[in-house]
């Protein structure tokens, strides 16, 4: 019997090769090739939106009407998409197992089914299982069509017949095309499945949401190329221990990225969190050393979070340092700056830094709050309850400016804070239309900051 023919694919970029290679010539990734059976008949495969014969068109003549959008009715979701679902767009929703992707998309179906025709296709759950989930979510006033199927050719036929406006595919890793010999979830299947869904979306103007599982590294399983092919990539994230979830756009051809939507998982599905700051600060200790409130920007939204620090005498030869929600190396760096610029010795102290509520923050604007929290715990003096602080700290101890300063200040003011410790302001920055009720305390370096506490 003839040996089954196989080909090798790069997991990163989908590069195809007849033999195994240590390094991908396409994207230079190491050890990224996997072996898969060769497609019996080479599947027709178009990467982009071009369908049929090439047709040239002058740019000036292309109609520039704004894309047609449908509002879902879940405000947090609409915002992340850039103002509703764009007709004919392909949206990838990634996230850890059990984070609530299926729940979110079923809730979306419930909302839009009142006005539009929706089809929910699941390759992971049976119709009964979906029904059980739907029962937890409450009443469905519109009609949501269900299909438990994994064969994409049958799915394409169903779409042809039903002509829905919005379709959910849960998940791309379970879908397959018979023409491609490989197992569902393999590089070539995921690539083919996405390409054919892309064609369906663009040809028929159907908006398709696909669920993608994420790998250990936190990217969507399958080729990285998947993210390049789709119009929008959303990640649904959250902490296993916390009930809130964040929906984040990491790529959006029809809107800005880095917008977030905040949800809370409840007994009856996901609830919108309209004011994340209040939610993050719930249960905050009052007048306790080591607790500082800061504002971080999530896209265009300022969110108030609490940074906590605990500095205490060490019982070990090597002091212990941990950081949760902020970069560990950043905390070490800031402690080194404190030692050098403030002349305090932290070598004999354990230090723990934590962002309450389980948020993960990567922006440098949180530096000032970390240092203030460490100082507050070190000196055992509480920072005033109605004070917030933000700013970046450089290696010489200087406090540097952050983006969208006034939005952050306004958010703090809105929530009733009275004092705001900020970097030294340029006069241009101060000319903001409305007068501020909140008091601004400008600090130029960390010595000035230390003198405040
Ligand atoms: P699910 O949407 O199945 O996650 P994914 O599709 O991302 O794997 O999430 C289900 C989790 O959410 C599950 O652990 C149960 C929980 N859950 C609730 O807490 N309340 C609910 O109303 C629903 C539907 C699920
Ligand atoms: Mg699921």
Note down, in words, how this protein is organized.
The chain has helices at 75-81, 101-112, 127-137, 152-162, 187-204, 225-229, 276-280, 328-342, 367-379, 405-414, 427-430, 446-451, and strands at residues 6-10, 16-17, 33-37, 69-70, 85-86, 90-95, 118-122, 144-148, 166-170, 207-213, 232-238, 244-252, 260-266, 269-272, 291-298, 301-313, 321-324, 349-355, 387-389, 392-393, 399-400, 419-423, 439-443. With 453 residues, it is an alpha/beta fold. A 9-stranded mixed beta sheet has the order 8-7-9-10-6-11-12-13-14. A 4-stranded mixed beta sheet has the order 15-16-18-17. Strands 2-1-3 form a 3-stranded antiparallel beta sheet, with no helix packed on it. The mean pLDDT is 87. The chain binds thymidine-5'-diphosphate (TYD) and magnesium ion.
Number of strands: 23
**Which molecules are bound in this entry?**
thymidine-5'-diphosphate, magnesium ion
Q: Specify Rg, calculated over alpha carbons.
A: 26 Å
Neighbour order of strands in the largest sheet: 8-7-9-10-6-11-12-13-14
Alpha-beta classification: alpha/beta
Give the topology, please.
Layout (H helix, E strand, L loop, with lengths): L5 E5 L5 E2 L15 E5 L31 E2 L4 H7 L3 E2 L3 E6 L5 H12 L5 E5 L4 H11 L6 E5 L3 H11 L3 E5 L16 H18 L2 E7 L11 H5 L2 E7 L5 E9 L7 E7 L2 E4 L3 H5 L10 E8 L2 E13 L7 E4 L3 H15 L6 E7 L11 H13 L7 E3 L2 E2 L5 E2 L4 H10 L4 E5 L3 H4 L8 E5 L2 H6 L2
Helix pairs in contact: 8-9
The structure holds thymidine-5'-diphosphate (TYD) and magnesium ion.
